[in-house]
Amino acid sequence: MAERVNATGHEPDGRPPIDSDSGGASAGPQPLLVARGLVRHFPLPGGLFRKSERSVKAVDGVDLMIGAGETLGLVGESGCGKSTLGRMLVRLDEPSAGEILFDGHNISTLREGELKEVRRRIQMVFQNPFSSLNPRKSIGDTISEPLIIHGIGDADSRHRRVLELLDIVGLRREHYQRYPHQFSGGQRQRIGIARAFALKPKLIVCDEPVSALDVSIQSQILNLIEDLQQAFGVSYLFISHDLRVVEHVSDRVAVMYLGRVVEEGSTADLYRSPRHPYTQALLAAVPIPDPAVAQPDSVLEGGVPNPIDPPRGCHFHPRCPLAVNRCRAEMPPLMAEGSHKVRCWVNAPAAYRSGIAPG
Amino acid sequence: MAELKASADTMAPALPASEKPEGRLRQVAARMLDSWPARISLVILGIVLVCALVPGFLVTHDPFAQDLSLRLVPPVWAEKGVAGYWLGTDQLGRDTLSRIIEGTRITVLVSLFAVAVSGLVGIGAGLVAGFYGGKADAVILRLIDIQLAFPLILLVIAIVAVVGPSLTNLIIIMGLSGWPRFARVVRGSVLTVRHLEFVDAARSIGASRIRIMTQHILPNILSAIIVYASFEIARMILLEATLSFLGLGVQPPTPTWGGMISDGRKYVSLSWAVSLAPGIVIAFVILAFNILGDTLRDALDPQFDERI
């Protein structure tokens, strides 16, 4: 992962064969964003005179691809690094290592001042609708701000554009002069979505956009997000801890555990035949809205290990019902079978099982 | 949160669509004038302003003219009061009321400019410290600590004694004496706002750092700044009075409120009015500034109406 890739070189030829999605990606849409070996370490505070050598490994080597017009769902428990990953893709957080190619351009090394063009193409919808809107700005000001910053149109055309955006996200034109505190959570999330769409971006990172909302409102917002994708052809990275929400909106899903992707595949594949024991446990824990069906009390034992000092080998082995000796010693790579990738020795795809048989 | 949702979803008919951005200032002004304390404070400050601008119109006597035959005359309603000398005279037979009016200009000028100086430096330093954090924060915090380690009055006295008590010197020294507290208030407010998602949202739409600081952070900490500034004006009036009282303020014969208290102190057993009159004026002006600061803070808050 050390070599710099030039602006157009996003072919997977420089990557280790075991990691490559041979055959998988070529069948899917044109890649819009490709992340390779993304790492984010948060150093722990050191002593007075020396820097700490320990750090929280929030994201620890993630590769992912988002195709044009598709939705990639990203699921995992809180603290698994999914939000940090999303923030790195919109460059709100600095990657410690790795690279992000957007439309073939490496955007991970751009400095803050050079990011303006990228900001226009990649937008974000935030989790908390109550803190993601500036309470001192009217709705019109909030939605028109991206247009002002990027010098789009004059005051008149911006005003018209904002009214249009209010229509698109299902708010009324009279809302233009109102302030955020006059709106409900769902309405505020619509405002945040209007702001994200103002610049006509190609990719929107949705960081748990509905988890702060009432269930009844959630589906409205999810439908809005899907409708807007139909209308404008944007791609989404949809981050959530709610597996049913992710299943509803995603074309493909990646499951994260402790800073790494442990399984990735098309939504249908992954939900029908999950390979990684962690994914299996997550799916088994999804509540079934039927009182006649018995649900296990707790599928997984123990808690998420300390990300400062993750376990050797497979990070999941202390909680894994299938763990064998090799899992405790050696970190499994992401092994692909078609477009379905899994990071597990025990449930590795057949092709790998013959080649690298468990010891 | 639940009640917010309920009320907002079934929100009353829309506000008139004619509301334009300039309506906001008018709205703030209307809210300001909505309470009696604020109105009275505005009247007091209006009088102060007139006194500061055109003292010549209001004085009944030449504030510098001495009349040794009428020394330490009590106020006009007292037994030995003399008609025309409404608040009596001082030890040199000068009319107290005229001197208070004449002194307004210097006192107000020095205090306002001193707050402007400390505000400018303090807000700038506090914003940078709070927003950038890291080394900038550490350096600014150390500077604040170093200055706050000196007792304020003592520090000002020492510097005034060295550079001399000219009007400009006083403004700058008093101003710089106040910036560390200002910076701390601002820094603390910035820290509470900086990590809110709307700041990230501003970054994600491409806002520059300057824009984030001035458009997103500053408006959200403005109420804290305004309230603190109004207290600072009051404190600066006191500081100026203290310096004048100690003989390090604006030099005689130019009247200032603090200087008048100082002059009257020696004769307080003979005539209480000489000290008390400017003292009462100081008290009311400070009160007016504080009330106005409070009102302005509430009026600037878009959620004002709902909170009552």
From TrEMBL, chain A:
State if Chloroplast is listed as a keyword. no
| Locations listed in the record | Cell inner membrane
- ABC transporter domain location is 33-283
Keywords of the record: ATP-binding, Nucleotide-binding, Transport
Q: How does it sit in the membrane?
A: Peripheral membrane protein
Give the InterPro entries listed for this entry. AAA+_ATPase (IPR003593), ABC_transp_ATP-bind (IPR050319), ABC_transporter-like_ATP-bd (IPR003439), ABC_transporter-like_CS (IPR017871), Oligopep_ABC_C (IPR013563), P-loop_NTPase (IPR027417)
Coiled-coil positions are: none
Instruction: Map out region (Disordered) in residue numbers.
Output: 1-30
In terms of SUPFAM superfamilies, this protein maps to: P-loop containing nucleoside triphosphate hydrolases
**Is Cytoplasm one of the keywords?**
no
Q: What Gene Ontology molecular function terms does this protein carry?
A: ATP binding
Q: Which family does it belong to?
A: Belongs to the ABC transporter superfamily.
Its recorded name reads Dipeptide ABC transporter ATP-binding protein
- Organism whose genome encodes this protein: Microvirga puerhi
UniProtKB/TrEMBL annotation, chain B:
Q: Give UniProt keywords alphabetically.
A: Cell membrane, Membrane, Transmembrane, Transmembrane helix, Transport
Could you confirm whether the keyword Repeat appears in this record?
no
Q: What is this protein called?
A: ABC transporter permease
Where is each ABC transmembrane type-1 domain found? Answer: 104-293
Membrane topology reported for the UniProt record: Multi-pass membrane protein
Transmembrane residue ranges: 40-59, 106-132, 152-177, 217-238, 270-292
PANTHER family assigned? OLIGOPEPTIDE TRANSPORT SYSTEM PERMEASE PROTEIN APPC, PEPTIDE ABC TRANSPORTER PERMEASE PROTEIN
Q: Which organism is it from?
A: Microvirga puerhi
Instruction: Give the similarity note.
Output: Belongs to the binding-protein-dependent transport system permease family.
Q: What does the organism's lineage look like at the top?
A: Bacteria, Pseudomonadati, Pseudomonadota, Alphaproteobacteria, Hyphomicrobiales
Q: Where in the cell is it found?
A: Cell membrane
Could you tell me which InterPro entries the record lists for this protein?
BP-dependent_transpt_permease, MetI-like, MetI-like_sf
